[in-house]
């Protein structure tokens, strides 16, 4: 079974703090994604990566950065957390290149981040 | 306008009922996904479709490419089916678009 592991289920941070959300997958997938999920808005893509050290902006990258130093790990960074970044954050990975048409995404359990 | 629209947003059913959740999309797609999100956040991929119909247990997913529409059916619904069901498409432009989800509650 594919496993996508997010380091924390719940996280509480203060405004202005630097926050790291970690995601690790164990199936040698090329692609990894970070989403946030908010009521009424569904899942929105923040950043994705299709290879080590490669990253692409998604729909809402502002206020976030990412790091992919190793294939299995994709980190989401909030440089200076703000209250509007309180959300559920979901990491996903998928096995084929972006040009492929049969990409199933495997999701982690999510990290519920509260910024006070 | 969202590229993926789901209906209904909320659905309550009695145990045993047949349930249908609908998804319409406006972009060209290479695949459509149905996802299930349990309380607490974890998301499971139920189906990936590019044509026709797929069945897994009590779950059936259909897609009509010409009409840009997909349905997820649950037969003989059970309280453990209570979850949020999300439709997502992988567009031909290599983007993923997600519906806002359908919250299903099955009452014993």
Question: Can you describe this structure?
Answer:
The complex is a heterodimer of chains A (116) and B (108). Helices cover 0% and strands 51% of the residues of chain A. Residues 97-102 of chain A have low confidence and may be disordered. By secondary structure, chain A is mainly beta. The termini of chain A are far apart. The radius of gyration of chain A is 13 Å and the shape is globular. Chain A has strands at residues 4-6, 10-13, 19-25, 31-38, 42-49, 56-57, 65-70, 73-78, 87-94, 106-107, 111-115. Chain B has strands spanning 4-7, 10-14, 19-25, 29-37, 43-49, 52-56, 59-64, 69-74, 83-91, 96-98, 102-107. Chain B is globular. In chain B, strand 9 (83-91) and strand 10 (96-98) form a beta hairpin.
Tell me the strand percentage band of chain B: over 45%
Q: What would you call the structural class of chain B?
A: mainly beta
The end-to-end distance of chain B, rounded to whole angstroms, is 36 Å
Number of helices of chain B: 0
Rounded Rg of chain B: 13 Å
Spans where pLDDT lies below 50 across 5 or more residues of chain A: 97-102
Q: What gross morphology of chain A would you assign?
A: globular
Global geometry of chain B? globular
Number of strands of chain B: 11
CA distance, first residue to last residue of chain A = 37 Å
The main β sheet of chain A shows up as:
7 strands, mixed
> Whole-number average pLDDT of chain B?
91
Helical percent range of chain B?
Answer: under 10%
How large a portion of the residues of chain A is in β-strands, by DSSP E?
over 45%
Residue stretches of chain B low in confidence (pLDDT < 50, at least 5 long) are: none
- Output the number of helix runs of chain A: 0
Largest sheet descriptor of chain B? 6 strands, mixed
The averaged pLDDT of chain A comes out at 88
Main structural class of chain A: mainly beta
Q: Name the chain pair whose interface involves the most residues.
A: A-B, 25 and 23 residues
The rounded Rg of chain A comes to 13 Å
């Amino acid at each position: 079974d594919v496993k996508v592991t997010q380091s924390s289920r719940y996280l509480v941070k203060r405004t202005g703090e630097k926050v790291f959300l970690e995601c690790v997958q164990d199936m040698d997938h090329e692609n990894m994604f970070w989403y946030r999920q908010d009521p009424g808005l569904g899942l929105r893509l923040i950043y994705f990566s299709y290879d080590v050290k490669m990253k692409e902006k998604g729909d809402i990258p502002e206020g976030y950065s990412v790091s992919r130093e190793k294939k299995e790990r994709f980190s989401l960074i909030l440089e200076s957390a703000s209250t509007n970044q309180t959300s559920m954050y979901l990491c996903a990975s998928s096995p084929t290149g972006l040009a492929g048409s049969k990409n199933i995404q495997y999701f982690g359990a999510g990290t519920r981040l509260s910024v006070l | 306008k969202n590229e993926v629209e789901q209906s209904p947003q909320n659905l309550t059913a009695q145990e045993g009922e047949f349930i249908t959740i609908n998804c319409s999309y406006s972009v060209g797609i290479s695949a459509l996904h149905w996802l299930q999100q349990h309380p607490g956040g974890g998301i499971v991929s139920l189906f990936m479709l590019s044509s026709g119909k797929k069945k897994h247990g009590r779950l059936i997913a259909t897609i009509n490419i010409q009409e840009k529409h997909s349905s997820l059916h649950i037969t003989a619904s059970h309280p453990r089916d209570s979850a949020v069901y999300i439709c997502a498409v992988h567009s031909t432009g290599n983007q993923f678009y997600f519906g806002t989800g359908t919250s299903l509650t099955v009452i014993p």
